[in-house]
Specification:
Radius of gyration: 21 Å
CATH class of the largest domain: Alpha Beta
Distance between the termini: 37 Å
Strand content: 15-25%
Structural class: alpha/beta
Strand order of the largest sheet: 4-3-2-5-1-6-7-8
Number of strands: 17
Number of domains: 2
């Protein structure tokens, strides 16, 4: 198969959507010879912050000399983004070869695997065939029944945070969602980020049940952390360090990652303090309070639930005090977009509502109505490109920043729209 054919195969089963359960992925891994048993993993779950935390852990391990795999989701532009070794995306040639192997075995199954299960199996094959020393594995959704949870006991489990999202599948309370995320706990030490007391109790009880040491993100040897437009500056064991990722939420992600690295050091990994510093300073992770343009300033953040929106609005307020943004936003109809709109309205002078390229997306007219109820002028746009053009024009004229947020699915279209503006 060529790359287009490989993607067509993967997307041909997307109609099944999310179908929780480990039966299909277990069967697929068995047929493939259980490649997941060839690799040691750090397993990362959480409502928000999973990707950033995973990227930081991976970069530190690579800096320390370990051949490190990284599996994340979703991709923002290309499927190859989901599979990395030592920070480099899988090549399209390797992507096709791995997809071909998984396709051959998946087609033998009576109960066909879902898109995410196929991608997870591809990650296992890719990391195994490349003899990775360790891989950082991000859960797609939940944890207990997530396809990534087919692995055995990891080196460490990480739960970044707990917030209400995917409530129709994971549960409608923080405690229920925490129980699903805690499903990745299997005896290895567990790092937990900033969670409520009720969620922490669920995680703590699960740790006790499985004999797992519970480690708070606050135990990471970090102090003096400060959010700036350049990233997150902090002191790590005497090293002044800059994480080149903006966002008030990155301080928690950073601490979770370093706490997980401390677990690995206790497991015998040879990771020096200078490796931690260098690894953090080399982290690259797109779509999380990322500056896409300087004149005018254009920020993209993939906040898509109330918890993420709170942090996004807080970060904007810290970095752009006493300013209001021109917002470009689109959301999925199955999200709590009412709460998100209420939060983002506090930092918006005007809103251009768009529809991300996804069948689950909410109509711009409906989203504009929600923002109008929050007292903010809102204009529905026929396309993401149109919304970006109009916001960019207004920002130039008014001296404001453009803030694009609401869904990671908009990222590629927004980047493309900005490129067209700059090249016109």
């Amino acid at each position: 198969m060529d790359y287009k054919e490989s993607v067509s195969f993967i997307e041909s089963v997307s109609w099944k959507g999310s179908v929780p359960g480990l039966e299909r992925i277990s069967a697929l891994c068995d047929i493939l010879g259980n490649p997941e048993r060839d690799v040691r993993f750090v397993h990362v779950a959480g409502t928000n912050g999973k990707g950033s935390t995973s990227a930081i852990i991976s970069s530190i391990l690579t800096s320390a000399g370990y051949k490190t795999g990284l599996f994340t989701s979703p991709h923002l532009i290309d499927y190859t983004e989901r599979f990395k070794i030592d920070g480099e995306d899988i090549s399209k040639r390797e992507f096709c070869a791995v997809a071909e192997r998984v396709k051959r075995e998946a087609e033998r199954m009576d109960d066909a695997p879902t898109e995410f299960e196929i991608l997870t199996a591809m990650a296992f094959v890719y990391f195994s065939e490349n003899n990775c020393d360790v891989a950082v594995l991000e859960c797609g959704m939940g944890g207990r029944l997530d396809a990534t949870n087919v692995i055995g006991t990891p080196l460490a489990s990480v739960i970044t945070n707990i917030a209400l999202d995917h409530t129709s599948i994971l549960g409608d309370t923080e405690e229920k969602i925490a129980a699903e995320k805690a499903g990745i706990i299997k005896g290895a030490p567990t790092v937990v980020g900033k969670v409520s007391a009720n969620a922490e109790k669920v995680i703590k009880d699960t740790c006790i049940k499985h004999g797992s040491d519970l480690i708070s993100y606050l135990e990471a040897p970090v102090d003096g952390d400060e959010v700036t437009r350049r990233g997150t500056s902090f002191n790590y064991n005497g090293y002044e360090t800059l994480l080149p990722l903006c966002g008030a939420y990155q301080t928690v992600n950073l601490r979770c990652a370093i706490a997980a690295i401390c677990v690995l050091k206790n497991e015998g990994f040879a990771i020096k303090d200078i490796d931690v510093k260098r690894g953090i300073e080399k982290v690259r992770w797109i779509g999380r309070f990322e500056k896409l343009s300087s004149d005018p300033v254009v920020i993209f953040d993939g906040a898509h639930n109330p918890d993420g929106a709170e942090y996004a609005a807080k970060t904007f307020g810290v970095l752009f005090p006493d300013e209001k943004a021109i917002l470009v936003t689109g959301v999925m109809a199955d999200k709590d977009y009412g709460s998100v709109a209420g939060i983002l309205s506090t930092v918006a002078s005007r809103v251009y509502c768009v529809k991300p390229d996804n069948p689950r997306a909410l109509a711009p007219e409906a989203l504009a109505g929600v923002y109008e109820k929050n007292g903010v002028e809102a204009i529905p746009c026929p396309s993401v490109s149109d919304g970006v053009k109009r916001a960019f024009r207004d920002a130039k004229r008014e001296g404001r920043a453009v803030f694009c947020t609401g869904s990671l699915y908009m990222y590629g279209e927004i980047v493309s729209a900005l490129d067209n503006i700059k090249n016109s």
